[in-house]
Automatic annotation (TrEMBL):
<keyword id="KW-0663">Pyridoxal phosphate</keyword>
<keyword id="KW-0456">Lyase</keyword>
<dbReference type="InterPro" id="IPR036052">
    <property type="entry name" value="TrpB-like_PALP_sf"/>
</dbReference>
<dbReference type="Pfam" id="PF00291">
    <property type="entry name" value="PALP"/>
</dbReference>
<dbReference type="InterPro" id="IPR001926">
    <property type="entry name" value="TrpB-like_PALP"/>
</dbReference>
<protein>
    <submittedName>
        <fullName>Pyridoxal-phosphate dependent enzyme</fullName>
    </submittedName>
</protein>
<dbReference type="InterPro" id="IPR050147">
    <property type="entry name" value="Ser/Thr_Dehydratase"/>
</dbReference>
<feature type="domain" description="Tryptophan synthase beta chain-like PALP">
    <location>
        <begin position="17"/>
        <end position="295"/>
    </location>
</feature>
């Protein structure tokens, strides 16, 4: 396995630790002591900044090519800007103008190519080959896992006695890193991954211990992936305690609860961990756990959904 706790300890991320708070109203509503780890307050509004900063620290100056529709794109753009390194992000032709603008605002070049992320990836591969820039996979890149692992190092250093950490999963970098850190610092702490039932590729890959593709229909962007990624799956397969699925509507309910009980704006992926607690209350009753609020970049459509009464 190409990744260990030592890599997390060696990660260079130059960011202050994010807060982790517990909210009595939230605890009463879910029947457990829940610590919310606030990655939504990062400069780009999501934990992915950690992986990107560590990657750029290890290869500054060398141009980067990557592909993404969301927070990975912003994270790579931000970190490349910090390290004065050229960065090109390939996004699907139909990517949202808000996201394109956010990536360009950090000085990255956006190339619109492909009808979906798979086609954007193929274009990024060609671009990297022709420019000699480094192709960065959002899932299969050890430097990203190492940087992201610092999040779990912060959680378990602050609260070594947690009985579980619930982690939202897309490609699996976060859950894989969490599993490695917990194995080292808190072997009895369960790491529980959560994905949307409408995009179960990572979940089904984990259950079958193979890399599978699945329909990718969730409206929750950070959890939307159509395939399993090899490096995180290898690690999760060996070390992660459990993996659950939640419906998209439960995620909206959790977003509303974070807004009302924790004065927190979470994007769908940022509320997925709490959604798992709401979906399986008996499993978490009376326990002391952490949920990772992985990001706060809610789209205008998500904001409208949070504010509306209907799902
Ligand atoms: C990317 C992302 C996830 C999923 O993380 P992976 O490491 O890809 O599994 C969860 N939440 C947010 C906000 C994200 O941006």
């Amino acid at each position: 396995m190409d990744f260990s706790y030592a890599d997390v300890r060696a990660a260079k991320i130059s960011l202050p630790p994010t807060p982790m708070w517990s909210y009595p109203v939230l605890n009463a509503a879910v029947g457990a002591t829940v610590h919310v780890k606030h990655e939504n307050v990062q400069p780009i509004g999501a934990f992915k900044i950690r992986g990107a900063l560590n990657l750029l620290a290890t290869s500054p100056g060398r141009g980067i090519v990557t592909y993404s529709t969301g927070n990975h794109a912003q994270a790579m753009a931000y970190a490349s800007h910090q390290y004065d390194t050229p960065c090109t992000v390939v996004m699907p032709q139909a990517a949202s103008p808000t996201k394109i603008a956010a990536v360009r605002a950090w000085g990255a070049t956006v190339v619109l190519a492909g009808a979906n992320l798979g086609e954007s990836e193929a274009h990024a591969v060609e671009l990297a080959a022709s420019t000699g820039h480094r192709l960065v996979s959002p899932g299969d890149t050890p430097e990203l896992l190492a940087g992201v692992g610092t999040l779990y190092d912060e959680i378990l250093t602050a609260r070594p006695n947690l009985s579980a950490i619930v982690v939202p999963v897309g490609s699996g970098t976060g859950a894989a890193a969490a599993s490695v850190v917990a194995a080292e610092l808190a072997p009895t702490c369960e790491i529980i991954g959560v994905q949307s039932a409408s995009s179960p590729a990572a979940h089904d890959s984990w259950r079958s211990a193979s890399l599978v593709t699945r329909p990718n229909q969730t409206r929750v962007e950070g959890l939307a992936t159509g395939r399993g990624y090899e490096l995180p799956q290898q690690i999760m397969c060996k070390l992660m305690s459990d993996f659950v699925l939640v419906p998209d509507d439960r995620i909206v309910e959790a977003q509303r609860m974070l807004a009302s009980a924790a004065h927190t704006l979470a994007e769908g992926a940022g509320a997925a961990a709490l959604a798992a607690v709401l979906e399986f209350p008996e499993r978490f009753a009376g326990r002391e756990i952490a949920v990772v609020c992985s990001g706060g970049n809610a789209s205008p459509a998500e904001l409208a959904l949070i504010a509306s009464q209907a799902n």
